[in-house]
TrEMBL record:
Record localization: Cytoplasm
The protein's name: Benzil reductase ((S)-benzoin forming)
InterPro entries tied to this protein: Biopterin_syn/organic_redct (IPR051721), NAD(P)-bd_dom_sf (IPR036291), SDR_fam (IPR002347)
This protein's GO CC annotations: cytoplasm
Main localization, broad class: cytoplasm
EC number: 1.1.1.320
Alphabetized SUPFAM superfamilies for the sequence: NAD(P)-binding Rossmann-fold domains
The UniProt record lists the keyword Oxidoreductase: yes
One Pfam family per UniProt: adh_short
Amino acid sequence: MSQTIAILTGASRGLGASLARGLLAPGTHLVTLARRTDDDLASLARDQGVTLEQVPVDLSDAEAAASVAERIFAKLPRDASRYLLINNAGTVNPVANTAALTDVAAIGAAFTLNVTAVMVLTARFLAATQGLSARRQIVNISSGAGRNPNAGWGVYCATKAALDMYTRVVNAEHREHGVQAVSMAPGVVDTGMQETIRSSSVESFPALARFQEMKATGKLSTPEDVARRILAYTERDDFGQTEIDDIRNYS
């Protein structure tokens, strides 16, 4: 019997890689979904005695996301004391002025990864854990961009705003049945996404200089610290009381 069964998306780099490592604790059964597997994570899991399943998948592909969601949750053990789904995978692309957002494929892939895959995985999670007395937690990694407009981020802001509202709907439907869902902004984290942002043109992203300055002056949070705080938050008794939240509200 596992004490915690955790399902984590976007686990191969950045915040997701740090979350995966933070979840490597005895009694945990960890399932990761990412474009590639992580040999170092597998080695660490063996050293910690943690059951690890790494599922390679591109969650920006709607059919692949639906197929993998059905497969992993169909065999999910039902004897754990806690089930934790962390929807972390996401993209900031395409970055462009709204007048230039004409790449239908890029827009669709972003919505699939940032929103559709979350919905499909959450639906399967809810069905697979229905009726259990275990603690059932969902953490959707959102962004302040979903709550405040940023020029050049029409797609990113829209997807994260959708994620926030979707989290509220999940709670409206399932909180009375013991599900706790949170849409959590992680702050500005020093990850590959930030590298992508800093490589944007000022024409596409007018706030470019501010993000470059944050990197240059050490104002970005480390993935390790943010992951530690998010996982500590999932252990709190007041988890889920604030459904649209920011990890910077917690030490």
